[in-house]
Amino acid sequence: SEEEVLVFGSSDGVYYFDGKIVKKIVERDNWVRALKVFDGDLYDAGDYGKIYRTRDSKVVAKRYDWITGLEVLGGELYDAGHSGKIYRTMDNEVVAERDGSVMILKVWNGKLYDAGAYGRIYRTMDNEVVAKRDGSVMTLKVFDGKLYDAGAYEKIYRTRDSEVVAERDGPVMALEVFNGELYDAGYYHEIYRTMDNEVVAKRDGPVRALEVLGGDLYDAGAYGKIYRTRDSKVVVDLGKPIFCMLAVPRSVLSGLI
Question: What average pLDDT does this structure show over 138-154?
Fold first, then answer.
């Protein structure tokens, strides 16, 4: 399979790391909060209120408010954010509207789900509430065929039956699956293997992102570094907070790196 590289977003643009080199690939004038590959191209979005095709900085949509979610389903790109509207990006069609900021879009079992500051998790297209939470939902992850959610309510739930699988000492910002296990991280400055509550790493600030690249788990956050989680080796020292990371095939960045 093709080699993957890590792309990540900070306060001033999109960067990449290929195991050796760190390079800024595009400038942005505000926080990058979402990265997604769609139709063989990388897209970025964030507090700048636009969705860009990253490679040539072509603006594909304008939202006039910060964007936190990008997701792909059925050959279409979707976006959402502070406005509470969920858009089919390329034709600007509003497919759903919420009464608060959308923090995350996630595909599960061939359907789009959304969640956010409104404390509910929706199956987006039919506006079906599948779960209610006591606070903002910050992240959704599919693990072992089931959907999990976590957020400001300091718990990690199996979404459909609202089973609490773990409780934390602060908001949960990131869930990731690595080597067949679920991991979580957030404002409690620790990274846990979720199901057995094992602390695998500690950080000196909130963790905002977890991502798997080349058989290793990586973490990033307010501390301005990317660590290889298992041995806490610093692989990127950016010096400014990192809000999102995405492993992508190297070919996606052709012409940029």
Answer: 98
